[in-house]
Amino acid sequence: MSRTHHHHVAIVGAGPVGIEIAAAMKREGIDYVHFDAGQIGQTIYQFTPQTRFFSSNERIAIAGVPLQTCDQSKSTREQYLAYLRSVVQQFDLQVRTYERLESIRRLDDGSFLLDTNGIRGPAQWHVQKLVLATGGTAGPRKLGIPGEDQENVHHRFDDPHVYFRTRVLIVGGKNSAIEAALRCYHAGANVSMSYRRAEFDPKHIKYWLYPEITGLAKAGRIDIHYNTQMTSIDGTAVTLRDVVTGEESTVHTDFVLVLIGYRADMSLARMAGVELKTEFEVPTINQETMETNVPGVYIAGTAIAGTQDQFRVFIENCHVHSERIVASILGRNPARVQQTEYLRPES
Ligand SMILES: Cc1cc2nc3c(=O)[nH]c(=O)nc-3n(C[C@H](O)[C@H](O)[C@H](O)COP(=O)(O)OP(=O)(O)OC[C@H]3O[C@@H](n4cnc5c(N)ncnc54)[C@H](O)[C@@H]3O)c2cc1C
Questions:
Q1: N or C: which end of the chain has fewer CB within 10 A?
Q2: 100 CA: nearest ligand 1 atom
Q3: Which part of the chain has CATH 3.50.50.60?
Q4: Is 155 helix (H, G, I), strand (E, B) or coil?
Q5: What does CATH list as the number for 142-258?
Q6: What is the pLDDT along the chain (347 residues), one digit of tens a residue?
Q7: What is the pTM of this model?
Q8: Contact at 8 Å (CB) between 282 and 266?
Q9: Distance between CA atoms of 16 and 75, rounded to whole angstroms?
């Protein structure tokens, strides 16, 4: 193991919120080191190609840098990744990409010893403050049913091309599942869906997707098994149980795409001693400063909500985190921190 590197702050995670925090710290001359286990914007990189953000561009713009798209429509994954690269270049932010924070030890004086590992090998860091901006979508939620780990069962929707001229059963009934169903259908797949409720809820679906999915269902182009729960997968035979009658039926499909949401990985927060509440592992945070119950450990971005059953914490309501954390680290009065001017007020 090489020597220990010393910095005042470590930022973990270079998603939009981690990058915004790094820009704010750089502006203030705070000595920090910044890690991401993957590339910058790793979570967004993992979206399906050409996925369009639901949030409007001005709400997902960070660090005061406007986000423009050629046709003024909402940003795609590709446009937003290019934008994040520009922001990092604009502020000349140094992100240690492909370097995962693996362990956190709190020393008697309240500082932290961190171990990272990645493409440059293991390293050790000593910091006074730790900011965890590790997001809320570390991995897919699973059903925990027999056959779920078969090769033809996917938990991420990588590209509709995969499903061309195959039968695909999509499990779920919110944005991810419906977007995947429409894209697979238009890409030439034979699509069916299983959803545990009696109908789709337009409140939880992007407004431009709802009319299309309900229209295609009515026309019989996409077969939707409402009120069903998948109970097992055996090769290409899937068992669905009717949640009302309890009756079981078999659907034959080449692929199963389980898109029922994401879970956060709160293991770093737990390792640091942060109190996590409820089954969703919501960290205990002082909302004025974003500092947790462990002095010197801050949590920012969507990680503040742990695993989100219903998405309520988005990029747009996390912008203020960077300013609260910087104010706290610099010993400024957090009550004076306002939402930055470039953000429109919440509607
Ligand atoms: C399909 C889809 C569509 C979405 N649409 C929207 C939308 O329209 N609007 C919106 O606001 N949000 C949307 N989201 C949610 C969006 O992804 C998040 O709001 C956003 O990425 C959160 O930013 P963040 O910086 O908090 O975390 P993330 O972007 O998740 O960044 C966390 C970073 O932490 C890194 N990391 C994790 N653990 C470690 C570790 N141990 N060491 C080092 N690095 C680590 C990860 O690699 C990652 O880069 C969408 C999500 C999905 C899946």
A1: C
A2: 42
A3: 4-138+262-336, 142-258
A4: coil
A5: 3.50.50.60
A6: 569 999 999 999 999 999 999 999 999 999 999 999 999 999 999 999 999 999 999 999 999 999 999 999 999 999 999 999 999 999 999 999 999 999 999 999 999 999 999 999 999 999 999 999 999 999 999 999 999 999 999 999 999 999 999 999 999 999 999 999 999 999 999 999 999 999 999 988 888 999 999 999 999 999 999 999 999 999 999 999 999 999 999 999 999 999 999 999 999 999 999 999 999 999 999 999 999 999 999 999 999 999 988 788 999 999 999 999 999 999 997 766 654 443 333 32
A7: 0.94
A8: no
A9: 14
Angle at 182 between CA 77 and CA 262, to 5 degrees: 55
**What separation in Å is there between the alpha carbon of 164 and the centre of ligand 1?**
29
* Whether domain 4-138+262-336 has CATH 3.50.50.60: yes
C-alpha distance across the termini of the chain, in Å: 51
Residues with CB under 6 A from ligand 1: 12-18, 35-38, 42-44, 47, 51, 53-55, 60, 100-101, 133-135, 137, 176, 268, 301-303, 314-316
Ligand 1 atom closest to 46 (CA): 53
**285: amino acid identity, one letter:** I
